[in-house]
Amino acid sequence: MASWVLSECGIRPLPHIYSRPRTGFISNSKNNHSRIRFFHSNQSKTDLKFRGSKERNWALRVSAPLKVAYGEEEEREEISNRVNGVVEEPDFDPGAPPPFKLADIRAAIPKHCWVKDPWRSMSYVVRDVVVVFGLAAAAAYLNNWVAWPLYWAAQGTMFWALFVLGHDCGHGSFSNNPKLNSVVGHILHSSILVPYHGWRISHRTHHQNHGHVENDESWHPLPERIYKNLDNITRLLRFTVPFPMLAYPFYLWGRSPGKTGSHFDPNSDLFVPSERKDVITSTVCWTAMAALLVGLSFAMGSIQMLKLYAVPYWIFVTWLDLVTYLHHHGHEDKLPWYRGKEWSYLRGGLTTLDRDYGWINNIHHDIGTHVIHHLFPQIPHYHLIEATEAAKPVLGKYYREPKKSAPLPFHLLGSLVRSLKKDHYVNDTDEIVYYQTDPQLSSSSYSK
Hints:
Blueprint: H1 2-8, E1 36-38, E2 46-50, E3 58-62, H2 73-81, E4 82-83, E5 86-87, H3 102-108, H4 118-142, H5 147-171, H6 178-191, H7 196-208, H8 224-228, H9 232-239, H10 248-254, H11 276-300, H12 302-326, E6 337-338, H13 345-349, H14 360-363, H15 370-375, H16 384-395, H17 411-422, E7 432-433, H18 439-446
Antiparallel strand pairs: 1-2, 2-3, 4-5, 6-7
Helix pairs in contact: 3-16, 4-5, 5-6, 5-7, 5-12, 6-11, 11-12
């Protein structure tokens, strides 16, 4: 008590001879043979065991209360939580089962956050489509090398915004009308060369298995046995910037290493027989868009179409891969992945990350609020921020506050590079695993 009073008054007390004992904690120090060890007991007595070195095992049983009765509750809490004015907190284990259930998070989210407004959703579609055509018209009119780079960055970002709205259609958070969702989703995704149903189904698999080493579908970790069997070129391309950020079109055709199938093939392992007609429909729509682009290339010239569409398309692909990757990788602390009995929908979802994109947040429809979106993908994007704020008290330390962004989120490039440098593979068998680093790849890819 005196020690605490002195520290609060700005006077540094004398150092303690022994560190403050922690209830239920046993030191593993090999160099200290005279520590007092306290053990909890459910009985009315407490065992205070003095243990020395080697084989000595002396025990003193004292019939005394474990806690001293103080006059005020506040003083007792202050004493228990402070050592020389420093608050001590137990270490947090992100791989431990959370003390709450999915229903607890759901109950904390206001009811109106679950309401889907198709008119509001359509207003975002109209807004984005108008901006896309306006940017293209302005770039074609100006047609100079000052305007084109600005156009590519802006239009590629707007293509990404269109993708996010189509993504909402795929989740059913756009509206409660499946036909409206399908029509709007096909128009938006086909326009940027995404097979709507093929992607929708694989993305559903991603959400249903998020955080699972083998069953996840999007940017899941490679088990060591698969990683070791990758050829050098594949390994280098997967973990060296900028190549991973250009992977999406190739993923649509061939999926990730260790998996087979295509988003365009109705007989792919991705789909069940009842989904084949949907996949064929989306593949036909994709083919029609590709044919339209070829026709426009003949009509307007291939160079003009390269500038108007092809370059923004690859900017969009970069956005998609960057956002998707960083919502599951790149945190300062190691985050767990699961398999077997340790995996659950809740635990897998809690390994996802929110990200702040500065000015881009509104443009790409707050997709950075990713934790609540992953747990409850039926919530419309325009309610995700409010739902996240309501859920934070329940989530506690399982929610990781995103780093505040400048107007443009260049800080995320550092997170991307650091993650690709160290997050290479995971253990083949354990049920709770963390990324491991291949020293050879790390040094060869980033030493230059």
